[in-house]
Design goal:
By secondary structure, the protein is mostly helical. The protein has helices at about 5-15, 30-35, 50-55, 60, 75-85, 85-90, 100-115, 115-125, 150-185, 195-205, 215-235, 235-245, 245-265, 330-345, 350-365, 375-385, 410-440, 450-465, 480-485, 490-500, 505-510, 515-530, 540-555, 560-585, 590-605, and strands spanning about 190, 275, 280-285, 290-295, 300, 305-310, 320, 470-475. A two-stranded antiparallel sheet has the order 1-8. Strands 2-3 form a two-stranded antiparallel sheet. It is found in: Endomembrane system.
């Protein structure tokens, strides 16, 4: 074969429509030669050199074709799961996510909300749970209260706290499984912060000193859950939430946040920074345990002796005698608060957990000024249980403890209505905000799975009351998992799996001290303050009711009183305008105005003669 024929073959091959090999650009001299001869001459007559004809081949030019690495095992796993019935059931491909992404998102969500296991059990157990005077070794009206809590009653409360850790985990599992499997949403559920404080401190009261016993309070939660379920079935849930005045809705979450922060600042369930003052009610505290004193309301009898006032209770150690800002546990808690805050600033997942773990780990060492196991009979018993580390604790006292004996009392229904209102606002707001954050909400404000999401939440409330805990709700911490890429119910199912594992570590979770929980409560309060920007403070018709709502919740230690106060003030401020508007609408003089306006408009259009 001659050189010219080889050139023609190569050029013809390079210009073939089916060829994937691109020819190189012609040199300027070659372009000039073709322009002189005219466009009619065929390209193969230009006699390109053999070198130029061979240049397009990558093997000769030194260029190598792009090589793709073989698929990894994770890629193969994600592809296999996505194409399976399991993947189609949870719409992994449709929502642009993978199996491993959902697992990672569920892990992130659990890390940010796992604090609820210790915090909820600690708060609800402050109500005394199912314990009563009969559990005291020496029964008396004051055996349940400080400074000398009866050992028998203290032991009963300790067992109840362990029950509540398992109840918290179990109710979280039920709610998260329902949300993940039926609604297919990446939202985790657990007993809500705020409602648990209202349950423990306002309804039942510290060690049962409130107006409704623990058993009846659980029945109130059960009734509220059933009503919630009916409202969800009938589709009235979102409509009922819109009936609440907007400033009260916006400020209620802020008030609950202040309530939680106030609890975290006190001695009983917090860091002890705020203390009691006989003259100003509140003052700076943070004094050591040995410098605290309790308050006992007494009366002088006719015979000159002192006696506890009937119906009164002995307070916790909330009066600082001396040594303000010298409490070792306070400074340890302050370090934990700074750790949580720094992690939040850096967007580190599990920020609250890191702070709790840091403070708790240091408090577990015996023989220190910050130990959670002092050298007392109660401390020795707690330390013996702590050393078990792994132990499945069956619920023995809180499950099925409901009692409907107080269903005819007004206080019972006050608790039901408050629980219902808070759950409607909290859950509805959380569900819609999380669905919007994940990109699920359409132009009509709806999102896929919302019906089953409401149903799952209501069912979890009923289940939680049967286990002995406060109302269950969707957690705003689910945003962490959504930020990690969670888009399906597999995220919620992953959280449920972690809660199942936590049931076997009750000895560790029950040994978390209050000064480790306090910083978490304060930080949660900070997070809930962001809703304050939704209030129209320039409009006093909204600003005043909003302020009354948010300020009464912490200062009266009651969410219900804050809601009642805010709604009442809103109605009173707008009553005159509502009455004036109604008068204009139904008065005889006002009914003629629209007729004149219509006639004038029609006359201007030239369609009616006057």
């Amino acid at each position: 074969m001659s050189t010219c024929s080889l050139q023609r073959d190569l050029i013809g091959f390079s210009r073939s429509p089916s060829s994937r090999i691109r020819t190189i650009a012609l040199s300027p001299a070659r372009v000039r030669s073709q322009s002189v001869r005219g466009s009619a001459n065929p390209p193969h007559k230009s006699r390109p050199s053999l070198t130029n004809a061979l240049l397009p081949f990558p093997r000769l030019t030194g260029r190598r074709p792009t090589m793709h690495p073989p698929p990894s095992r994770l890629h193969n796993l994600n592809a296999a799961v996505a194409s399976s019935w399991f993947g189609r059931r949870f719409k992994l491909s449709e929502r642009g996510t993978t199996f491993t992404t959902e697992l990672r998102a569920g892990t992130a969500t659990f890390l940010t909300m796992a604090y609820i296991l210790a915090v909820n059990a600690s708060i609800v157990s402050d109500s005394g749970a199912n314990c009563s005077v009969s559990d005291c070794l020496h029964p008396s009206p004051s055996c349940k209260f400080p400074p000398a809590i009866d050992p028998g009653y203290a032991d009963c409360v300790a067992r109840a706290r362990r029950d509540l850790i398992v109840a918290t985990a179990a109710s979280s599992v039920i709610g998260s499984v329902l949300m993940g499997f039926f609604a297919n949403l990446p939202l985790a559920l657990a007993p809500g912060m705020g409602t648990n404080a209202y349950f423990a401190y306002s309804v039942v009261g510290f060690h049962g000193s409130g107006s409704v016993p623990y058993r009846s309070a659980l029945a109130a939660v059960f009734v509220e859950g059933v009503l919630f379920l009916l409202l969800s079935l009938l589709g009235f849930r979102s409509r009922l939430a819109r009936l609440i005045p907007r400033p009260v809705r916006s400020s209620s979450s802020v008030g609950i946040g202040l309530f939680l922060a106030f609890i975290g600042l006190q001695n009983n369930q917090g860091i002890g920074l705020v203390s009691f003052s006989p003259s100003t009610l509140l003052t700076l505290g943070a004094c050591p345990r040995s410098a605290r004193a309790s308050l006992t309301p007494v009366q002088t009898l006719p015979n000159g002796t002192l006696s506890l006032i009937p119906g009164a209770t002995v307070s916790d150690d909330l009066l600082c005698l001396h040594g303000r800002m010298q409490s070792p546990t306070f400074w340890l808690a302050a370090a934990g608060f700074l750790i949580i805050s720094y992690c939040l600033i850096r967007n580190i997942k599990g920020s609250i957990i890191y702070g709790i773990v840091f403070v708790t780990a240091i408090s577990w060492f015996r023989g220190t000024a910050v130990t959670a196991f002092p050298d007392t009979p109660e401390g020795n018993e707690s330390y013996a249980y702590f050393k078990k580390v792994v132990d499945f604790h069956p619920i023995s006292s809180t499950a099925g403890a409901l009692s409907f004996s107080d269903i005819a009392r007004g206080r019972f229904w006050e608790a039901v209505i408050t629980f219902l209102y808070v759950d409607i606002l909290d859950t509805t707001g959380t569900l819609y905000s999380m669905a919007r954050f994940a990109g699920f909400v359409d132009e009509n404000g709806e999102f896929e799975g919302q019906y089953f999401a409401f149903m799952s939440d209501a069912t979890a409330i009923v289940a939680g009351s049967l286990l002995g805990t406060s109302p269950v709700t969707a957690f705003i911490e689910s945003s962490t998992g959504i930020r990690e890429g969670g888009r399906t119910g597999l995220t919620a199912l992953t959280v449920a799996a972690y809660f199942i594992l936590s049931m076997f570590f009750t000895p560790l979770l029950a040994s978390i001290p209050p000064w480790a929980v306090g910083p978490a409560l304060i930080v949660v309060g900070v997070m809930m303050m962001k809703a304050v920007t939704e209030i129209e403070w320039a409009d006093m018709r909204q600003g005043i009711p909003a302020f009354i709502t948010l300020i009464l919740m912490p200062l009266t230690y009651s969410i219900a009183y804050g809601l009642i106060g805010g709604i009442t003030v809103f109605v009173l401020l707008n009553a005159w305008d509502w009455a004036a508007a109604a008068f204009k609408k139904f008065s005889p003089a006002a009914t003629k105005v629209p007729e004149v306006e219509v006639v004038n408009i029609v006359n201007d259009n030239g369609s009616v003669e006057v």
